[in-house]
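Sequence, please.
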């Protein structure tokens, strides 16, 4: 199955309709946004809403790859990731085998860190590893959360979800703290993550504008959801790093 990712500035799961920024927009009231859905989210988390986590991939830019066409640039990276056939796996265990073999075979490839982020998302979310709590599964959750951090991932909500699952099921507190600390430092130093946050904030500012066209309500709700997930993820990662 082919996977489709958006360029980093557009944010995966956000609408591809890139509306011009409204200069009359006011900054989003993030506190109200978060409080509005907090109780609902707590109930949903128990029902497995990890499957609603955004698929944020830090692709290499055209400058980094030397491919001038932005669409072709992203497609080449996606095609590389698809070679591992992770989505054809019958289980996360089988995908884990394919992931490790592909990562080993392609260790020096310029797209390997894009693959590591893609693979971690597929195995944790699409193949439901995040729903597991056996000792073997917890070790794998730790491994793939660590892969996200080491590959320069911008998906703070997914990193946070992995750490939370480990904590909830009694994984080593020292290892959780160490991984959370590494994650926090990586995100703070990651220019692509800063770009993600800036883009999401701009979308949310538009969504909160008094003059916003109601026809964009559905996509605006999604922008706000991703914005809130990122904020909550940062808070959770920081708390677990202490």
């Amino acid at each position: 199955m082919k996977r489709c990712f958006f360029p980093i500035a557009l944010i995966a799961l956000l609408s591809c309709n890139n509306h011009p920024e409204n200069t009359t927009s006011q900054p989003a009231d993030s506190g109200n946004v978060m409080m509005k859905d907090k109780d609902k989210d707590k109930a949903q988390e128990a029902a497995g809403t990890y499957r609603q986590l955004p698929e944020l991939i830090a692709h290499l830019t055209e400058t980094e790859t030397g491919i001038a066409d932005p669409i072709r640039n992203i497609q080449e990276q996606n095609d590389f990731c698809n070679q591992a056939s992770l989505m054809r796996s019958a289980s996360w265990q089988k995908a884990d085998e394919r992931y490790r073999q592909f990562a080993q075979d392609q260790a020096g490839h310029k797209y390997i860190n894009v693959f590591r982020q893609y693979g971690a998302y597929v195995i944790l979310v699409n193949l439901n590893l995040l729903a597991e709590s056996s000792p073997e599964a917890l070790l794998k959750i730790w491994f793939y959360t660590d892969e996200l951090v080491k590959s320069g991932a911008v998906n703070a909500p997914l990193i946070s979800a992995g750490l939370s699952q480990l904590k909830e099921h009694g994984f080593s507190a020292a290892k959780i703290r160490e991984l959370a600390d590494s994650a926090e430092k990586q995100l703070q130093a990651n220019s692509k993550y800063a770009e993600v946050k800036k883009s999401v904030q701009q979308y949310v500012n538009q969504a909160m504008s008094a003059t916003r066209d109601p026809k964009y309500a559905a996509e605006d709700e999604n922008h706000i959801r991703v914005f809130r997930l990122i904020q909550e993820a940062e808070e959770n990662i920081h708390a677990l790093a202490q």
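Residues 30-240 form one domain.
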